[in-house]
Amino acid sequence: MPKAKATTNPPSPRETILLTARDLTCGDRNTTYNDPRINMMAFAELQEWAAKWQKHCLDSTASDIAHHAAMVMVYAKLARIVVGEVKADNYIDAAAYLAMAWECHEREAEAL
Known about the structure:
Elements: H1 13-33, H2 36-57, H3 65-83, H4 88-111
Helix pairs in contact: 2-3, 3-4
């Protein structure tokens, strides 16, 4: 792998984001949420369940997009809970995404 060039200029916003992402995903997040493959497999399993849930329980209209997007975020938080450290942050985030999903559903129902 090529080595990064040393720079004397302040990092660009892109470089700052990439360095922060590297530090978090290879450090704190990796320690907290386990190996990325394990976490992504848990997420994929939840997504598979979600697809079945959507197919059998919901009317998949275009107006459901925001609701479903919020639910995908809930699945991401559930995957972190399943394979990572127990952190209140994930439960709080999941609850927030569920509340957002409900709000999206309500607004979508009003729009019909």
